[in-house]
Amino acid sequence: MSTTTPQGKAKPPGPPVHATLIPAIICVSYFMVILDNSIVFTGLPQIRTAMGFSETGLSWITNAYVLVFGGLLLLGARAGDVFGHRRVFLFSLTAFALASLLVGAAQSQWWLIGARALQGVGAAVMMVLAVRFLPETTPHKGRFDVAGALLATLGSTALVLGIVDAADGGWSAPATVIPLAGGAAMLGMFVRVERRAAQPIVPLRLFASRERSGAYLTRMLYTGAMMGFFFFTAQFVQSVYHWTPLQAGLAFLPMTLVNFAFAVQVPRLLERVSRPTVLLTGVTLTAVGMLWPSRLGLHTTYLTGVAPPMVLIGAGQGLALAPLTSSGMEGVAPADAGAGSGLVNAVHQIGSALSLSILTAGAAAVSTGHGAADVAARSGVALTGSAVLLAFAAVAVLALILPARGTRHERTF
């Protein structure tokens, strides 16, 4: 339908500005976050050498980011509701860009880790609000559950710190016991705060569903296994094959292409088989693919020991992630949709950090050297751990999600 200008001329119809702007904003936001993290992963060997990171310390470059990211996701969404989505989005975009500059200019370990944490702040708010960047919202009064966000973030960080320190000082060392005990206590307080908060960032009723709870647990295990895969495989191909960071990035291309090819077929598959079946198939394929490179060694070739498992892992990812997300949102009331979506993403990030800390500690127990043989040995141990995490994820699907859905075929996801 055309409109008329003050001069009386008809104005041709066209899509609203936001119809083309929104997809561009979402794509650019996601591209920034993915590109930045890809650069960090492929640059880990060079960062370790240049800044003298220990094997366990190197994991903090990733953990600092994902812990803050996961802890502040829900608070970021609430900030947009209170202050206006566009205003908070632009602030987070600026913070992310500034933090990226600080990462590139980092001259010390703590400078780099601190900048990565700041990136997590910007990314958390940016990712939540990118998909809600429709018209500017009117700011309105509301309460922040700051205590809940801080307890979730600090509690998870303390657990990760304790696990990582266990690799250096042992499980009975004060540097291990104190953070673990403190983290457990803070997470216990978090549950208590959420139960009493007028506007909690995590309404505990979200855990009332067996399927959703199973999806949260499965997602933590699954993404944790994948984080270990990216973290250690990127180091393996550079240290053992002596590849450049660019070559290391291209090495993951088979997995990416297969992932996309399978992901676009998921809607059709769900018209024929149940969602839990597709999810279980995806998790199982990923576990088989992860078990294959768990025997990595100095003489493992890319074409026989790395690329084929990547194909299986890519297929598994493509099948698993969409159904897993849908199960995490199954039956969520409209009033809790924002919190439910944020919780799915939060367990994704926090599960990645907790699992990576466990895998790093286990790998460091085998070897702490920087030679190719040391990196190969650590990678094999870590990927074995990732395969175990995926086995537990499959058990969670079988025990929690599959019984909740029964044998009902799903038409949507």
Commentary on this structure:
This protein has 413 residues and is mostly helical. It has two domains: 16-145 and 197-201, no CATH class; 206-413, MFS general substrate transporter like domains (Growth Hormone, Chain: A, Up-down Bundle). It is 75% helix and 1% strand. The chain contains 17 helices and two strands. Strands 1-2 form a two-stranded antiparallel sheet. Strand 1 and strand 2 form a beta hairpin. Helix 7 (146-169) runs parallel beside helix 16. The protein is globular and about 60 Å long.
DSSP summary, beta strand count: 2
- Give the helix/strand class: mainly alpha
CATH fold type of the largest domain: Growth Hormone, Chain: A
Order of helices and strands: EEHHHHHHHHHHHHHHHHH
Report the total helices: 17
What summary fits the major beta sheet?
Answer: 2 strands, antiparallel
- The assigned CATH architecture of the largest domain is Up-down Bundle
CATH H-tier superfamily of the largest domain = MFS general substrate transporter like domains
Name the beta content range: under 5%
C-alpha termini separation: 34 Å
Strand order of the largest sheet: 1-2
Low-confidence stretches: 1-15, 407-413
As for the number of domains, it is 2
Question: Which SSEs are present, and which pair or pack?
Answer:
Layout: E1 3-4, E2 10-11, H1 17-42, H2 44-51, H3 55-58, H4 60-83, H5 85-105, H6 109-130, H7 146-169, H8 174-196, H9 210-239, H10 245-251, H11 253-263, H12 266-269, H13 275-291, H14 302-305, H15 307-329, H16 337-364, H17 372-405
Antiparallel strand pairs: 1-2
